[in-house]
Records
---
Amino acid sequence: MSGAMARRRFLGLGAGAVLGAGLAACSSPLASGLAGAQPDTADVIFWNLFTGGDGANMVLMEQDFRKSHPGVSVEATILSWGNPYYTKLALATASGTPPDVGISHLSRLPLLAAAGLLTPVSETGLADLGVTPDRFTPAAWQKATVGGTTYAVPLDTHPFVLFYNVDLARKAGLLNAAGDGLKPMRNAADFTDAVRAMKDASGRYGAVMSITADPATAWRYFSMVYSGLAGPVVTDSGTKISVDDAAMQEAFAFLQSLTKGGLMPSVLNGSGANALFSTGKAGFLFDGEWQIPSYRLVKDFHFNVVPFPALLGPKPVAYADSHALVIPHNPNRSAGRTRHAAQFVKSLLDDSAVWAHGGHVPAWLPTQRSTAFLDQSPQRNYVQAAFTAQYDPPAWYTGAGSDFQNTVGATIIEALSGRTSPKKATAAMRADLKRYTTARPPVTMK
Amino acid sequence: MTTVAATRPAPEPLAPAAASAPPPGSERRAGLLLSAPFLIVYLLFLVGPLAVGIVLSFFNTTTVKSGLGGWVGVSNYSKVLQDSLFWDAMWHSVLFTLFTTPPLVVLALAAAVLAHRMPRGRVFYRVAFFAPYVVPSSVVALIFLWMYTPQVGLITKLFSGLGLPVPDFLGSTSGGWTAVVLMTLWWTFGFNFVLYTAALQDVPPDVYEAAAIDGAGPWQQIRLITVPLLAPTTSLVLILQILASLKVFDQIYLLLGGGPNQSTRPVIEYIYDTGFTSYRGGYGAAATMVYFVIIVAVSAAWYGLRRWRATSTAA
């Protein structure tokens, strides 16, 4: 009997000791976690969604901030790109434990702003640090403004651009006299001729892009072509369909003219496009400028990047999005923390020439006009695209990584692959849009 | 793993009188105490969220705002039930189940019987067949994605090398289904294989011996002894496989993104897309509940059928 008691006592004491040690080891995060507060583990808590080359550049920029502000600590957390990131940002902010600084695509901003998750820039003290509207690419600043209030500080513009293989372009006779760009193309016919010349030069394909299972890329491409002819596909904060049927059919017909004629493969995913373009089996690549770092790594591969020429409309259009810095709403954030957050945002803007190595056009004009950026090639070639940028139309459902892009992108892929006619694709697109314009919005849009 | 233990039929309680007598208080307390860790986790992470989900499904809840949002009654349900995309997605989950369940059961049985009859190297085959199952779905999807890649992938090169027409594995609906089913077969049949291997070890060797003396060949032994004796395991493997296949999400999401044109999107991806990507939490919860009811109905029907069969054979 006494033996059993002793064992119980021993076990009890042991359990108590382990529990005590555990609690002591993580007392502050546990305590604050149970109380529902965010532990202040650093002066600036920063969330972003950058991995790969962008992630490495962001880490450099964070280090530069630490060097220039030795008294301010920064803790950066990288979350999965796209939807997982936005879900976490929204949930954390709604439950009162947001980061001090976050990243948002400007295309995702309208919903976050309408839900009251963001602190207006005017309340962050950024203006006192010299962060004023006149020092940004106008299109980006305008997109950061929802209902007259600016909620985000744009870091860059990342347009959909035209990559080309320099050697093949020379062979195809597409290079200009100086050899640093393409001969001017004025319309769809010029462009198609160029793609055909590239096909002859490469012996395989004129152009490639990621089509299969890549609705976002399909949507960017389609958006660019369609925007040359008509306005946004939805208006009134996403409650009204405003499709121009004739323009949309023309856009689909143009997309199909390239894939159906064999100038580009109608079935190809991202890695396939990468492989074909980087081995000289395709002259053009249609993709976002963020692919630049991955092609830089390919040995003896000469490529260049330019904005798309005007295709179906009178003027060139660049489908684009922007990474922007936001300060999520937190009623309990102290003035001191807000000041640190503003300093951090300003530092990232000043350092955005580093960011441009990822291919992005800095939205901060002092950087955009600096030699640190203008020495970067091919980045300097497509700055103009930032000024002709077409973003997703404002609505609760649009934006980078959204379900909307997946849905309409799927319809566009059907058209690109030639499985559906331009007329049917237009009708399908209307049906896709109807699903969103008639759904009950999660928040009321202004 | 409880499922393995369940392949052996539990002995029937022998004395009904003993079962009706209540156990002493101390034993009841001990029983509760011992099951407390499980119960707490079960309540906290299963029953709790389920209850929250039921409540959410009646509100316009969103994940971008705290609180429940406005009361919408059953309109989330009526919209889900009217949404053709929901039913498409539901059909895709059923289709996946129909495509994968029969081969996964048959393949696992065949492989288990063959591995069991190996005179040597049995451990090697067991490990080799089970190994893919422990690889995470994201890794499997990456590997297969590379093999299926149009123009440059291993399988597509193999087809064109042999002069066969190259199926569009990622870009067409039939190709997509083929791609995902093949990958799932390779990846998951190891689990059923282990269940069958365990059951095979329970078959007494003297039965085979007797059969051999009576002149039964190996095929007859398999057909007339092994397969009938494994019937309880087959029944278990079937229901586990049906439920697992109905829950398909990760491999389709990672390999095809539900495409092409959402023609392979399973119902869980539909729920994920509307509930999280589009922030419509209440609507997503309603879709989940509809799906939950269907899964419960399938399980209940299965068990009902088994009980009915058990009682009818006993009578």
Note: Confidence is low (pLDDT under 50) at residues 1-6 of chain B.
---
Amino acid sequence: MSGYKSLLLTLVIALMLTACVPAATPAPAAPPTQPPAVEKPAEQPPAKPAVQELKILWAEWDPADYLQQIGNLYEAETGIKVTVVQEPWGSFYDRAFTEFAAGGATFDMIVGDSQWLGQGATQGHYIELTDFLVGEGIADTVTEATLTYYGEYPTGSGRYWAFPTEGDAIGWAYRKDLFEDPAERAAFQQQYGYELSVPKTYKELMDIAKFFTRPDKGLYGVAIYTQKDYDAITMGYENTMFTYGARWQNPETNEVIGWVNSPKAIEALQVYKELYDCCQPPGMSNAFFNETNDAFISGQAVMAMNYFAFFPALASPAINPYAANTGFFANPAGPYGDRHAALGGQGLSIVSYISPERQEAAKDFIRWFAKEEIQAKWAELGGYTCNKNVLASDTFLKATPFNPAFAETMEMVMDFWNVPVYAQLLEVTQRELHRHVVAGEGTAEETLNRIAEEHDKILREAGFIKE
Amino acid sequence: MHNMGTVQRREVPFHPRRQLSDDALWRLFIFPTLALLIAMNIFPLFYSLYLSFTDYSAIARKPPVWVGLQNYRSILNDKQLWVYFATTGRYALFSVTLEMVIGFGLAMLLRERFKGSGVITTLILIPMMLSPVVVGLFWKLIYNPSFGIFNYLLGFSDPSKAPDWLANPKLALWAVVIVDVWMWSPFVMLLCLSGLNAIPEYLYEAAVIDRASPWFQFWRITLPQVAPLLLIAVLFRTIEAFKAFDLVMGLTGGGPGDATELIAVNLYRQAFLGQWRTGRSSALAYIILVIIIGVSNVYIRYLNKLRGEG
């Protein structure tokens, strides 16, 4: 084909294709009065936020994934990217505080443990949020107990350093199939003279634990915390201790002698040890959340103590063969009218080493995150909200089998010391409780006397108890 | 030719190899190594020595405060720490002694070549190749009174009557010792095997000609020949026993109570885990170091004496 013919053919095909293309909508004619385009001021694109990314440090677990999803919603709404950096639990504290020691601004916010508040506040790692949380009414949206234990330092001062983010506390799981079995109910009624049901008091808890303990069948009444490493046995004992009306300190003076080793505390420790001696499955002398869940899942324990954050595993049929028959209850009451539970969970704090501009951006995120609809979304994803209204809503209470017990528990939580020397206090407590409960050394009174003496010494040296 | 020679002479100054003298090479290799050594070993060593005389927490954002010997006084007067030292001493004594006996016994058995001895030697070496944390968790399950195999092998068929090794303060240290012996006897065996294989055969031949009894041969030939290697094994294992940490943390966490709280475990507790008592824990680390150097010196003197006699 000659060059001329080929050019002609190309033109014809091009014309045919053009004819097949639907006609474009004609552009509206410019109004006659419109000034020439060159004179129109150029339309400004929406201003980019000064801070384009916020980084939050948290431990590596499911709630951190949920927070990342919340962060993605924030990005979609504001254009500010939120990244949740997850650190394994074992190195979480070290990572956070070595970063603080260096005055690092790698992270804008941190979801820190409630016990870190003293260090965060007194050592200048967190910015104070009192005016922000109280002034804007955010403090009123969360339960009082969570605001106190996740946000306030010193306790009772009305000064806040964190927004209660992930509520958590210790509760109980139980085997509904065994509790509802007619033969078991009849036998229990005959033996104890009252109906077998979810325990309402520690006496009932003890009775039920003993009733179901049948070593010959590999069945035991409870699985409770005994681990020595960090804070497990202390948290487990606290459940009983607070509920028996005992406290770690005089709230006015911080005095510990006569408080840590009060008669009620001694009674509570005797009960905790009795639970361990009578009804804990063998081999659980160093048990924390994994071990208590495992004892329940393997069918060894009829009731298991654990943080609510670890109950999704027990509600999952893929993990727990008894999931369909697993019920949950809040810590029962003590004999003197008290009812409390040991606190877990964390609050969201703003790191003081970031620029004022980033601090404001972090506050904007907390302001948005604290909104009720976002808290509902947080709860829907699996996060444990501390928002009063969401906790009380039907949607939340029906979302999981353990949410009603969780909502009940979050109204009665109490915590260990959160002063900067908390780790020293904890080390003594862990060692002595483990020595008595697991190793069986000494009496409850001797154990608590030793703890009280050592706590007194540590607190006096640190200036928390005045002469 | 002349031109080519000129070209070659011009290229010579650009050849780097010709410029590297022995001194330059020495500097090139030694200085970076020295710098790294100083930065990573020498400086931390002296800085931690300095910190041991201060009140300092690495996370407190406050400079170290000189307190002289206060940390050392406080540690040496702390009765609780002496309990941990005593536990560590017992642990070292029990585990090292058993490792020597078992390791040496295994080496004597495997010294004789038989069918499958190579495979058996390799299998015996497996435990020392595992991570101590994994071994700790693994043995935690083995010791479990409900489903662990250990009690079953001891003849306890009823879990409710079987001992809970990790919960009983009288048994817990032994439980850790057993695992350490299981893990490290192969190391002693390996050292002893190399010593046994190096004994000249003519010594035994001469002993047989002299009608020496097997016991005499063992006592007068085998043991003295292997003793230097055995002592090296004792030295290594004692040092390791004083540093034992990961196995205990995986197995008992220092419990029950403080029955297995070895000094290295407690050092970790004071240095990290929320306490971050950097000054005090540095002082404790130096005290442990001095003890290890002291014990090692005794061994080394004895070793030198043995060699002198040899």
Note: Confidence is low (pLDDT under 50) at residues 1-9 of chain B.
